[in-house]
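$ ./design --mode recover --in tokens.txt
reading tokens...
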């Protein structure tokens, strides 16, 4: 083994193996202090991947790294005499090596070196979002369906995923909630990826994230500025004030999407008017529409979301129908 000084494998000191793992989502060279200590104290440092992103930085720091992929037996022999060998793991880890070491240990015939798994770098919160962006880039480039999608063609999926998210929340299903949040996030990343290709006004997921970060900071002066807020009501007042300054709207109704469900639309209009201190009587007219408008306004004034309330009542009605049919209401009526 040219990467380490030959030592009698029968030496009583079994040595130590350090399996060093790194995250590809963290800039190369940003290793933990225990990792640098282990690298500098090692008798040999090995890496099976000659293109590993950490190698240039390790060598720049004076760490001699041998590009080698030893077998489990070779690695055990290299540790004989109390030597320490650090293995810089590849992105896939070292399953063949660790499995081989487990098999050797299982024989009971070999005194095994001490084995330590040492994380050299850790993912920051949100780091997996980088993976999502990379996966979306590849899908957009290589998938026959995804490569042809447009904002307009995907719009209906955004609505569907949002409703499925609400359903998971109302059902209290934590696993479903996690999955549906992912589906909603996919819509955001997908649209942002398509937007990059616009010939005149392109923007990226970083522009999207940067915009919402700036908005959140500006609308939370009690967190990032010198304002104070002790109650949720004061926070809402800050939010509405800064939002009004940003939008410079001439009416409180501006920005309310008219395409949303009718009960939600009615409640939003009532909320805007009430928050602005406008005493606007509900229009009087004949028909169920005006009756529903009055109900929605009454619900909003009482702090109840009429859409949520109606969905809850509708689910109860659905269960009653299924019981009348002799079907267990708990059975999933739509496995898809």
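writing sequence...
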């Amino acid at each position: 083994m040219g990467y380490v000084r030959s030592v009698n494998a029968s030496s009583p000191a079994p040595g130590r193996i350090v399996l060093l793992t790194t995250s590809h989502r963290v800039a190369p060279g940003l290793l933990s202090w225990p990792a640098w200590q282990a690298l500098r104290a090692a008798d040999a440092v090995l890496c099976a991947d000659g293109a590993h992103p950490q190698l240039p930085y390790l060598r720049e720091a004076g760490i001699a790294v041998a590009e080698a992929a030893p077998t489990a037996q070779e690695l055990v022999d290299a540790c004989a005499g109390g030597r320490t060998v650090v293995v810089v793991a590849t992105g896939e880890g070292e399953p063949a090596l660790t499995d081989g070491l487990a098999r050797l240990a299982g024989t009971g015939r070999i005194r095994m070196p001490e084995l330590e798994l040492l994380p050299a770098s850790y993912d920051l919160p949100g780091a997996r979002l980088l993976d999502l962006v990379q996966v979306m880039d590849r899908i957009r480039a290589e998938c026959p369906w995804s490569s042809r999608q447009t904002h307009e063609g995907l719009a209906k999926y955004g609505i569907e995923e949002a409703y499925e998210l609400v359903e998971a929340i109302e059902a209290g299903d934590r696993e479903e909630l996690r999955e549906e949040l992912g589906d909603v996030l996919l819509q955001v990343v997908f649209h942002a990826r398509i937007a990059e290709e616009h010939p005149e006004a392109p923007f990226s997921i970083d522009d999207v994230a940067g915009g919402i970060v700036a908005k959140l900071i500006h609308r939370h002066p009690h967190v990032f500025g010198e304002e104070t807020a002790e109650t949720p009501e004061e926070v809402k007042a800050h939010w509405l004030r800064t939002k009004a300054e940003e939008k410079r709207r001439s009416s409180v109704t501006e920005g309310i999407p008219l395409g949303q469900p009718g009960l939600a639309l009615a409640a939003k209009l009532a909320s805007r008017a009430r928050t602005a201190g406008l005493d606007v009587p509900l229009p009087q007219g004949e028909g169920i529409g005006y009756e529903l408008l009055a109900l929605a306004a009454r619900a909003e004034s009482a702090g109840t979301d009429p859409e949520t309330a109606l969905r809850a009542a509708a689910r109860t009605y659905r269960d009653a129908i299924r019981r009348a049919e002799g079907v267990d209401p708990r059975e999933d009526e739509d496995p898809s």
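exit 0
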